[in-house]
Amino acid sequence: RLEEFLKQEVDLELSTLPDFEERVIDFSEVEQLMNSINTIPAPSAPMINPQAPNAATGTSLRVCWGLFSDDTVECYQLCYKPVSNERHSDEQAEHTLKVKETYCTITDLLPNTQYEFWVSALNASGISPPSERAVYVTAPSAPTIKSKKIRSCENAALVCWESGDVNPVDSYTVEL
């Protein structure tokens, strides 16, 4: 276009004639740079919170976590498994849930059982490293009162019960 423009009536005198070549310009590096500017980085590892008081029932746990930075996150991947000393047990299977919020209530768990939780954040660029692992414990199931063993007198009562839990219970509260 410039050569055609210069052939028109122009009052410019050039000492040399323009010599143009057809060049192919490689924009791949520029394109990569532009793409890297427009993409968001993969998120950093979330921080899982320790178990909060009253966050457990006999069959459920509420797990919460947060982020250190203002990362862009589309969803979270929450993983958990029961804590056990036995290796290669069927109950050692890891479970994974996709969650939009920074909390999740997990149901259908075993009473008085420890579970290990960890979480990762995801966005379009990738997945974060996993958080530190946190151990949560479900509440014990209610004990069963042995009604045939109840004894009482004027100033005292004997009440016996048994726990249906596999793991030992720390203490009981008896209400009258």
List the helices and strands and how they pair.
Layout: H1 2-7, H2 28-38, E1 47-48, E2 61-66, E3 75-82, E4 95-99, E5 103-106, E6 114-123, E7 126-127, E8 134-137, E9 144-145, E10 151-152, E11 157-158, E12 161-162
Antiparallel strand pairs: 1-2, 2-5, 3-4, 3-6, 6-7, 6-8, 9-12, 10-11
If you had to describe this structure to a student in words, what would you say it looks like?
By secondary structure, the protein is mostly beta strands. It has a domain at about 45-135: Sandwich (Immunoglobulin-like). Helix content is about 10%, strand content about 30%. The protein contains 2 helices and 12 strands, in the order H-H-E-E-E-E-E-E-E-E-E-E-E-E. The chain has helices at about 1-5, 30-40, and strands at about 45-50, 60-65, 75-80, 95-100, 105, 115-125, 125, 135, 145, 150, 155-160, 160. Strands 3, 4, 6, 7 and 8 form a 5-stranded antiparallel beta sheet that branches. Strand 6 (about 115-125) and strand 7 form a beta hairpin. The chain is rod-shaped and about 125 Å long. The N and C termini lie far apart (about 100 Å).
The share of residues in extended strands comes to: 25-35%
Average of per-residue pLDDT values: 84
Broad structural category: mainly beta
Q: In CATH terms, what is the architecture of the domain at 47-137?
A: Sandwich
Oligomer: single chain
Number of helices: 2
Termini Cα gap: 99 Å
Shape: rod-shaped
The CATH homologous superfamily of the domain at 47-137: Immunoglobulins
Run of helices and strands: HHEEEEEEEEEEEE
